[in-house]
Design brief:
By secondary structure, this protein is an all-beta fold. It has a domain of 96 residues. Helices cover 2% and strands 42% of the residues. The chain contains 1 helix and 29 strands. The longest helix is centred in the first third of the chain and has 7 residues.
Length: 351
């Protein structure tokens, strides 16, 4: 089985300097910063690199980048973990970057170069890499400490681009959706391969639950959401919330870490709809931004809504009894003058 190359973990700037033709060979060690204080998680943006969200929901700021964007083509941040997968600009090499909250270290993951899409399991212990030119998906388990290629599958009959990819807890199965209208949805696992389980009218949005092998499917055409269960055998589908005008343009779906609610990022009108899995009322939260994603931040119950990492970043805080939308501004450097106290420090707030 393929895993990490056997030179062990190295500081990220050293690793990237060792890669032949690596785009970060000139990166200064000072560009890699150690994060201090409470960290909610990390954000990646191709213009600013990987940055920490410092503090707690409602009182957080954006910290300085722990990894420069120079030489990185793309990066994915693991939910429930303190690591990232980076695809390097030169050659599309895949690197596993650990210890983001302390001193980032990395190693090359012996996966094929230039994956088209990366999807993490809800617990961050596995990742799926999809390669469009090959029509192939590979699943690595044991992340981040002991990565190994667990299984792979050839995909067929895509009828267009693969638009959505979701991986179950532990990396045992995959949900994938195509780009057509109507849109096909498949389940893929190492025992039974690829099976068509449903059609949606338009682009489907997918998310697995955290604690059981069930998933949510959002129909981008009708606005309907379905809870898909018994995926290993004969999938069954139960409606969630019915067709609501607020879900006419779903941008993403996610499930909170305790499997209490399904959240849908809605673009028209901009906001978040929360559908209960435990019998509570539906929530509707307005957002000043147009939500484009619902990526979970590390081990927290916060989800990124705005796609760019420039301040302010808008987050869904799903950790409390009442979910809310909060913003995260840039940290303001405190200036001190003789005889004067510190200047006020701007922190995040609640919308």
């Amino acid at each position: 089985m393929r895993n990490m190359k056997r030179f062990g973990l190295l500081p990220i700037y050293v690793l990237l300097a060792l890669i032949p033709g690596g785009g970060l060979c000139g990166q200064d060690q000072n560009e890699v910063r150690t994060v201090r204080g409470p960290v909610m998680g990390f954000l990646y943006d191709r213009n600013t690199g990987i940055r920490p969200v410092l503090g707690i929901p409602g009182a957080a700021t954006l910290g300085a980048a722990v990894l420069s964007p120079s030489g990185i083509r793309a990066a994915g941040l693991a939910p429930g973990g303190d690591y990232a997968v980076a695809v390097l600009s030169e050659g599309g090499t895949v690197a596993l970057v650990r210890n983001l909250s302390h001193a980032p270290q990395a190693a090359v993951l012996e996966a094929p170069s230039s994956p088209t899409r990366i999807a993490f399991s809800p617990d961050g212990s596995a990742a799926a890499f999809y390669y469009a030119p090959l029509g192939r998906v590979e699943v690595y388990q044991g992340l981040p400490d002991n990565p190994e290629l667990a299984w792979s599958s050839e995909l067929s009959a895509l009828e267009g681009e693969l638009e959505e990819l979701a991986l179950s807890a532990g990396g045992r199965m995959i949900l994938a959706a195509g780009s057509g209208e109507p849109c096909p949805v498949w389940i893929i696992d190492p025992e039974q391969g690829q099976r068509l389980i449903r059609w949606t009218e338009a682009k489907a949005k997918l998310a697995f639950l955290n604690r059981r092998e069930a998933a949510v499917i959002a129909d981008g055409g009708t606005g309907k959401l379905w809870l898909a269960e018994d995926l290993k055998h004969q999938p069954s589908f139960s409606p969630l919330g019915g067709a609501m005008p607020e879900i006419s343009r779903p941008a993403a779906v996610a499930v909170d870490p305790l499997d209490r609610r399904v959240f849908v990022a809605v673009q028209d009108p901009p906001g978040v709809v929360g559908l209960s899995l435990t019998g509570e009322e539906t929530l509707r939260l307005a957002c000043p931004c147009t939500p484009g994603t619902l990526d979970r931040l590390g081990e927290s119950a916060a989800f990124r809504l705005s796609e760019e990492a420039s301040a302010p970043v808008w987050l869904l805080d799903a950790g409390g009894a009442a979910p809310r939308i909060v913003f995260v501004p840039e940290a303001v450097r405190i200036q001190r003058d003789t005889g004067r106290g510190p200047a006020p420090r701007r922190t995040g707030g609640v919308r």
